[in-house]
Amino acid sequence: MNNEKLEKFAKLINNSSKTVFFGGAGVSTESGVKDYRSEDGLYNTVREYGVSPETILSHSFFVSKPDVFYDFYYKYFLEINVEPNTAHIVLAEMEKKGKLSSVITQNIDGLHQKAGSKNVLELHGTTAVHYCMECGKPYPLEKLKALKGKVPHCEKCGGLVRPEVVLYEEPLNESVVEKAISEISTAELLIIGGTSLAVYPAAMYIRYFSGSHIVLINKGKTDLDSSADLVFRDNIGQVFGNIKDKI
Questions:
Q1: φ, ψ for residue 220 (rounded to 5)?
Q2: pLDDT, tens digit, for every residue of 183-232?
Q3: What are phi and psi of 149, to 5 degrees?
Q4: β strands within the chain, DSSP E
Q5: Which residues are catalytic?
């Protein structure tokens, strides 16, 4: 890894008046979370259901076949035991030091909070929260895990319980979107990591950035490469691990 680039990256962070991190699936794959579109991602490895994960994770499928949804959801989202990696940990440390304003993430795994980050904006929701679609009563995560993929129903009214995840066919949370756009539009340094910037509408919010510097950390090319001050084609955990003592 180019030490000169790492030094420049650390300098950008240290000199920035406001830094924001925008991350995607690649931030969590190093923790063992499957992404969607890579060779061993969910879309290419899940065959047993006869339909694509994108279909299963849609609002209409959830409502019509909650039994299949929860079998899939438990197996690929709740049953996995993952921990924050170096990227999550260093980002949390940056926030504690006052060197990071916020994390904006497309991930739903809660690993940024587990690492200690406080100001996390989850564009696609979270698997940490579940609630009744009828009365809104929260449903405990541990109780849901104990069902091992069976459909959960509200203990108060018997309504269907759902995750606080933005499913396909559903709009993003307006409040979260507004906060994310505000953070991006007022940042001096924008760090983009682990995302191809191909998932819309989330990727569109980058357009609101009008600051001074962009740093991109992603194994594949993105449409924003030519606009970035620095582009790293390395594992995001390795990049952050190599700058943590410099910031």
A1: -105, 170
A2: 999 999 999 999 988 878 878 999 999 999 999 999 989 989 999 999 99
A3: 95, -5
A4: 19-23, 102-105, 120-122, 125-132, 161-165, 189-193, 213-217, 230-232
A5: 124
